[in-house]
Amino acid sequence: MPIRIIIADDHAVIRSGLIALLAKEPDFEIVGEAASGMDAIKLADGKPFDVLLLDLSMPGIPGTKVAEELLQRKPKLAIVVLTMHADEHYLRELFRIGVRAYVLKRSTENDLINAIRAAYRGEHYVDPSMAGLLISPYVGRPAGKKYGRLALLTAREVEVCQLLAHGYTNPEVAERLSISVRTVEAHRNNIMTKLGLESRADLVHFAIDNGLLKTE
């Protein structure tokens, strides 16, 4: 019986390329494709499959939330994240919630194929270029030593920080919180200034360390 795969990526060209690549494997069968997080959840709920190939940056519901939602319903689901984010903190958080494989979009075809087969077997797979991060001094360090400043944020800033860390854009945060995009930008600037953060990756690190990158 072939390994049934659903592909979730908002770029049609990438989906087409993945379908063409994976269709060459005799033991793979593409049974569905989704262009958004919500589509991925609906498709996964209604169609029998074995592996979800999931991008993290998608409109609406980001991939981190899609993975969390589906794994709450189906803890044994095989999810392979295919992303451009070579970030150990995404890697750590996704493995924590039950994702089985993490592959970068710049990796080789064989890396992706091996990851899918490993996930299907119930094994974990990490992109070879990120394997060293599993023993990084950051991984497993006590939370709060560098980013333990959650008390500096207002309740609204905490909400904005959480949504931004989950991958929502400024307009999407504004829509979810019923505030203006300009207000979101102001909150974001305040968050970055108060916490001494310089990039979105820093914000994600802070959110993970302080328990914000979880179910809203």
Structural write-up:
The protein is an alpha/beta fold and 216 residues long. It folds into two domains: 3-135, Rossmann fold (3-Layer(aba) Sandwich); 150-209, Winged helix-like DNA-binding domain superfamily/Winged helix DNA-binding domain (Arc Repressor Mutant, subunit A, Orthogonal Bundle), CATH 1.10.10.10. The protein has helices at residues 12-22, 37-46, 63-73, 88-97, 109-120, 155-165, 170-177, 181-195, 200-209; strands spanning 3-8, 28-34, 51-54, 78-83, 101-104, 125-126. A six-stranded parallel sheet has the order 2-1-3-4-5-6, with helices on both faces. Helix 2 packs parallel to helix 3 (63-73), helix 6 (155-165) crosses helix 8 and helix 7 (170-177) packs across helix 8. The longest helix is centred in the last third of the chain and has 15 residues, at 181-195. It is elongated. The N and C termini lie far apart (38 Å). Mean pLDDT is 85; it is low at 135-148.
